[in-house]
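Render this sequence as a predicted structure.
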Amino acid sequence: VPIMSVVEEETDSGTAESQDLWASILGEVSRASSGSKTTKSVLVLGEDGSGKSTLVERLRGLTVDFRELCCGLEYSYITVQDEDSDETASKLLVWTLDGDPTHGNLLRYAISESTIENVLVVVVVDMSRPWTVMDTLERWTKVLRDHIDGLKMPPKRLKELEERNVKAFQEYTDPEETALAPVAAVATHSVGEETEGSVVLPLADDVLSHNLGIPLVVACNKCDLLSSMEKERDYKDEHLDFIQQHIRKFCLNYGATLAYVSAKTGKNCDLLYKFMVHKLCGYLFRVPASVVERDGIFIPAGWDSAKKISVLYEHMKTLKPENPFEERIVKPSVRKGTHEVEIAAEEDNYFLVRLQTVAPIAGISAERRAAEPPSRSPLPPRHPVAAGGTTQRTGPPKDVKSAGGETVLTTFFNSLLQRKSGSGATTALAGKTTDKNLSADAAAALQAMQNQDRGRKQAPSNATS
């Protein structure tokens, strides 16, 4: 089915001719589609990415995996099948405006002075981004109100349209309450026509306080993602009830019908289609309101009230009904991507050596060192003693100094490495530690070891003399 997009050319020359051309083309299509019957239209509004086009495809009975964003004003139609036969009874023209409110001037092709009484408006909101719900509703109803106010209609006719909305709200009856009573067909009378024997109650102050004169439906799309919101955004039941009560209060103010739908899974899409056919074509509609399933809510205009909405307050513990919506349902902050730095653990031997240069050495005494078995002694093997009482050495390691008692310090740390690894002493780190890095207790323990070592060296010299 071809879909035509209407995009207004904002140029200095040829603007009037272009508008007349589009108006004539669309008028011919409308007359050809509807024949001699009255043309019924559906106008779909909402933000980009809310699923307007996908929802329209669902209502048309089509299934699509991907749908490009609407551009300008799109045109399509929905075929209405006769209830008693498979023949086409009529067609509903569907106008879909893109998500740019500045294109509101294109609404003149969908709603004019001659067609306004045969139009139903659907405002689609994205439930996967709940913080945008109320802004979306306020923005697009304002665009719609500005367009209606700009139409050249007599005040009397506009008043009649508003009274028709009030009457439809007052005369609504719940199918469950009138199951045994004969169900009256939906009023198909023209604007201003009265019905006999009708008794209606006055409306509350918060009902239809913003009367557009047009039947309005709020379609909360992507309701299949409500369960994931509870996990990903830590939304609890009271958050979902808080969002629902704000939407329902808005619907009361505008006399709108509320439907939670999912264009992806098709949930409640068939219900929405039947309701639109009911409102525009007069077909019977026996589906009652449903508020049990969180992702399947359906509240027709005329059923809801402030008292029924107050039932949701019982489940709110941390949230209050009067709390501002934008303060409680906020947009999550976008976290910048951070790269985790990989930390490699150093070997135990190097860690122990580094630790001993910082932390004080406790529990080490000269007596304990002296009592250790010779097999675990970190001292190097003794060499033959030459004449004069001097010990011959092959020479210290290149990285170990023999002056100032640093040899004892080297062997002390090598003993720590021997205990941990069980292998021979490692001298790779010898000579790198000085007395300045040791605490007073560690220095005292090392001095005692040094004195003991000197005493052992003098004993063989006295024996030879």
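Summary. Residues 440-464 form the longest helix (25 residues). The CA atoms of residues 245 and 309 lie 6 Å apart.
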